[in-house]
Design goal:
- There is one protein chain.
- With about 450 residues, the chain is α/β, with parallel strands linked by helices.
- It has 2 domains: about 250 residues, Rossmann fold; about 160 residues, Rossmann fold.
- About 45% of the residues lie in helices and about 15% in strands.
- It has a 7-stranded parallel β-sheet, with helices on both faces. A 6-stranded parallel β-sheet has the order 10-9-8-11-12-13, sandwiched between helices.
- Strand 5, helix 5 and strand 6 form a beta-alpha-beta unit.
């Protein structure tokens, strides 16, 4: 069945995250379902498209590069991309300037497609951007039910334009065969898989976990698979505790195939310590392999309703690593491990397999194709243009348009120091972090579907 032309606009700076893993199966999967799918990857000094494609060979992609590095330059590059591809739907992932490019083309009568923000996070900045762009966005698709609720409650999107399509794991995998019999002297094999950083993942809590496990006298091995800005600090802290392989070891960056073949099959327990998550895919992947999940009650787990303490995983309060160690201690019981792993595998197969995820995403894009076009009035268009910041004195002297053309002619380019400056993930700071997290935590305590439209 032939479907519409779909363009995904995605950053290339983060090849080791869940977004890249999602793209690995979404692109070929949607193509098999009949979508004419195109992928535009950001390119630049901090967005190494070639390095990304070495880890994720998803096929032909379109490089997206700004000649000047300014916001106006990025918008012009995206406008050129949209004119070339002429998609029926643009799916935007962490490149909000895309929506501003659509607004400009739409006002000029040069774009008749739909634009959807594909939200893979629970963050105040993302929800604030949805509110800023709500007049031009045709839809928001989220991988988490709480993120969907926030798009309505704080982002101002009509509920019928907010769709839910979760990420998925490969469930066609050989389950690990090792089982530890009661009284076995073998240590429990624990793994942490993912980005090593403080604010979301709370990777530093692993130090307290090691202390708590030692206090209990538990035999364990902890592998930390991944990389990130907090890795050196975490290694130093572990070294100060006298932790050494095999008790605690760091594997460094691993690609998805290495994690599938080397980490999950040899893990008894996978640890999640996060403050918030939209999945995570790590959870569904670990469960698919038969590992037991010991996870924080992160923001995003409640309304999603998939993780059930004592039924398919064990849960502890965020940051309470003494309780986390207690969960690990309970898993010395092989019968409990077997029961949790069996229930977890069945849940992932039903809700988070690649097939289930692809069906949801395809259905969501079908819904977006059928949505009525949103008229963009002059006042709304001017408000969106006001979100485009000044790039310096030339803008004030010549105006943004002429100044940008002049920069392009003389080859003048802004130099950015990090990926989020070169291709920003947000249009600006959030309106109020405190209010956002208070509302998010309140919504996440609701254990039912709030009535949001689902694909």
């Amino acid at each position: 069945m032939k479907r519409g032309r779909l363009l995904l606009v995605v950053p290339s700076a983060y090849p080791l995250g869940g977004l890249a893993t999602w793209l690995d199966y979404i692109v070929p999967g949607l193509r098999k379902l009949g979508w004419d799918i195109h992928v535009a990857l950001t390119s630049g000094i901090h967005h190494d498209m070639n390095a990304y494609l070495k880890l994720h060979p998803i096929g032909p992609v379109i490089p997206l590069q700004s000649r000047t590095g300014t916001q106006e330059g990025r918008i012009r590059a995206i406008m050129s991309l949209l004119s070339k591809v002429d998609p029926d739907i643009v799916g935007v992932v962490n490149i909000p300037d895309t929506a501003l490019a659509v607004a400009r083309l739409r006002r000029a009568g040069r774009f008749r497609g739909r634009v959807a923000l594909l939200n893979h996070g629970i963050q105040a900045t993302l929800t604030t951007d949805i509110a800023r762009l709500s007049s031009v966005l045709d839809a928001v698709v989220t991988v988490n039910r709480l993120a969907a609720a926030l798009a309505v409650h704080l982002g101002g999107m009509p509920f019928e334009r907010v769709l839910y399509a979760p990420g998925g794991a490969n469930t066609d995998t050989t389950k690990r065969s090792r089982q530890i019999a009661s009284g076995d002297d073998n240590p429990l094999r624990l793994s942490y898989v993912g980005r090593i950083e403080r604010s979301q993942k709370r990777a530093e809590d692993l130090v307290s976990l090691v202390d708590a496990l030692r206090t209990r006298g538990l035999k364990f091995e902890l592998r930390i698979a991944g990389d990130g800005p907090g890795r050196a600090e975490l290694q130093d802290a572990m070294d100060m505790r006298g932790a050494a392989p095999p008790e605690v070891s760091f594997t460094g960056s691993l690609n998805a195939n290495q994690i599938d073949s080397d980490i999950y099959p040899s893990s008894d327990v996978v640890i999640i310590s996060s403050h918030w998550e939209t999945g995570p895919l790590v959870a569904w992947e670990a469960m698919a392999h038969g590992a037991v999940l010991v996870t924080s009650r992160y923001v995003g787990a409640g309304l999603e309703g998939s993780l059930r303490d004592g039924e398919n995983c064990l849960m502890y309060p965020v940051g309470d690593m003494a309780s986390a160690a207690g969960c690990v201690a309970r898993l010395q019981d092989p019968q409990l491990r077997c029961e949790l792993a069996s229930a977890a595998s069945a849940m992932v197969q039903a809700r988070y397999s690649h097939g289930a995820s692809l069906a949801r995403w395809s259905a969501a894009f079908e819904v977006i194709s059928s949505l009525p076009e949103r008229p963009l009035g002059l006042s709304e268009a001017l408000a969106l243009e006001a979100l485009i910041g000044s790039a310096g004195r030339l803008d004030k002297l010549l105006g943004k348009g002429i100044a940008e053309t002049f920069r392009a002619i003389i080859g003048r380019r802004d130099r950015h120091v990090e990926p989020g400056g070169e291709w920003p993930h947000t249009l600006g700071p959030p309106s109020d972090e405190t209010i956002f997290w208070r509302v998010a935590e309140q919504l996440d305590q609701v254990q039912c579907d709030p009535g949001l439209r689902q694909s």
